[in-house]
């Protein structure tokens, strides 16, 4: 038995306090996202927003958040993770306050952009702060609790969003973040210690600008392709800009003394396939609550609160699986657990493919959602632990930013593709009713057409989940990687 020294005990107590801070950050962002997913029809009806504006209420956040993650990971490596992390809380809280005062829909979209920048500062650093605080042998436990808090947010979010939209008004969907943000900011300032900064080095300004522009162009093209078609000028322009900037990024990063993306860090087999598996899981998982909430409102005529209750099996599954996997991670390889999680996610989505009918029993939909949630909780905890254990300490920020960026590209794609596939089954004139959740009031024929869209959307997500299982299996740790991991500790 290994003796526990007072220093070890003190470090572990501090690590769990750090986990409470970072978990608050994840809860804040998770609630902000899941409340809006369920309450989107209420916001759309208030502003009389069309399909374009409705999509951008969600996509503006995802686009900007994704495109700025690597930048803030690098900035935190150089300027201090604590300072950047706490600044993210402050900006997110302020943007949430202003969003509730939005006089029109495009002002709201602008506040979502500011929320996205604050969230990027939080997300790019939360996992890194936990990794730095926990002893390596306890990291899987800390990561399990950290990921479980996502389920707390998603458990509370849909119900809270539906209740707020029904009882208090859409503004409180954003204002509810303000007290939570202030508490998180104060607790973080009290608990987090200043972390050693790397020596001052010039920031790769050109690389950051090129990367931000390329990602923005790509994500804009991907998000618009489904609704406007591949021949749309917006889609063609975005794809062309990305194709032109990609070789420029590679050339600039090779020449930079301090590249924002050090290509050498992403060439290993484990990181490459683990990130691809994470991308597929995010793509398969992220739009699920949104799609199912729209199903219950647009096809079954439930209100926002009832729809929020109906999607709770997803976060319940995540919340059950994440801490269990965190404990298992001390004796079972994260590689094995990530494969099992990916398989469970695919099984849940496969079950949901059989539920695209207005007469489907609720219990059958609940089983599919719960299994998919368990799979996501298992995969997220084990995949994150697997990646973070394999990295050298000095590169944690930028590589974690890259990891979360890859996941967020999957999120953007998931929302854009799922909504496009879903609404393609009905005519353009009825798509606004789908977003507003009022299609069930118009025509049984239209609802029948929409059911085809739900089945196709589930089928696409299921196929992606299967691809994620394959990528997780290919992310087998190599001896060289294990050696590097041991050395870095």
Summarize the structure in short.
The chain is an all-alpha fold.
Question: How does this structure look, described?
Answer:
The protein is mainly alpha-helical and 489 residues long. It has two domains: 8-192 and 260-488, MFS general substrate transporter like domains (Growth Hormone, Chain: A), CATH 1.20.1250; 204-259. It is 80% helix and 0% strand. The chain is built from 19 helices and no strands. Helix 1 (6-47) runs parallel beside helix 5. The model is unreliable at 480-489 (pLDDT under 50).
CATH class of the largest domain: Mainly Alpha
The end-to-end distance, rounded to whole angstroms, is: 21 Å
If helices are DSSP runs of H or I spanning 4 or more residues, what is the number of helices?
19
CATH topology of the largest domain: Growth Hormone, Chain: A
Share of residues in strands: under 5%
Largest sheet: none
Give the SSE layout:
Blueprint: H1 6-47, H2 51-79, H3 81-99, H4 105-133, H5 139-167, H6 171-175, H7 177-191, H8 205-228, H9 233-255, H10 269-285, H11 288-299, H12 304-310, H13 313-328, H14 334-352, H15 362-389, H16 396-423, H17 431-436, H18 444-474, H19 479-488
Helix pairs in contact: 1-4, 1-5, 1-7, 1-11, 1-12, 2-3, 2-4, 2-8, 2-16, 3-4, 3-7, 4-16, 5-12, 5-13, 5-15, 8-9, 8-16, 10-14, 10-15, 10-16, 10-18, 11-12, 11-18, 13-15, 14-15, 14-18, 16-18
Descriptive key words:
transmembrane helix, 80% helix, MFS_dom, disordered C terminus, MFS, 489 residues, Growth Hormone, Chain: A, transmembrane transporter activity, 2 domains, transport, mainly alpha, globular
